[in-house]
Amino acid sequence: LTGAATALFSRKYIAVDQKMNWTDAQAYCRNKYADLAAFQSDDDQDRYKNDAKSHCNSGCWIGLSRNLKEKTFAQWSEGSNVTFTQWGSNERTNTMNYNCVYAEDDWYTDDCNNVRTFICYIWKPDLIVVKELKTWEGALKYCRTNYTDL
């Protein structure tokens, strides 16, 4: 082989310039993309700022909500647990009548029936090209040692 490549996947965020309530925004994202935006790290938050934040001057819905009985925001709409947050410095997440979350630079709660623009995501591969001559077996071993797989 003249080189090897491996693919990792990351979220690409897409701003949708239509105003909808949170539930309709979620349905739109699930129909056209993967889901409303979810963030698991600072890297995800930075990708959102690069990909879509310029469209969110008034705040865009993201994929975080809770049902009326919950006191915390524990799960993203795509099903993963919340392990990373970016709450605004004075944001009170225990206000029980605001059960959906929107993002500007930071995150804030709001009434889910309000209409806002929103952020969806899709998975995109991040390819890594290794510019070394290797046999297939050598490329496989190298990629499994240094990345995930060939």
TrEMBL record:
Q: Do you know which InterPro entries this protein is assigned to?
A: C-type_lectin-like, C-type_lectin-like/link_sf, CTDL_fold
Superkingdom of the source species: Eukaryota
Q: Which SUPFAM superfamilies match?
A: C-type lectin-like (SSF56436)
Note one Pfam family from the annotation: Lectin_C
Q: Tell me where in this chain the C-type lectin domain is found.
A: 8-121
Which keywords describe this protein according to UniProt?
Answer: Receptor
Q: Which PANTHER family match?
A: C-TYPE LECTIN DOMAIN FAMILY 20 MEMBER A-RELATED (PTHR45784), C-TYPE MANNOSE RECEPTOR 2-RELATED (PTHR45784:SF8)
Q: What is this protein called?
A: Macrophage mannose receptor 1-like
Protein's organism: Clarias magur (Asian catfish)
Its ancestry begins with: Eukaryota, Metazoa, Chordata, Craniata, Vertebrata
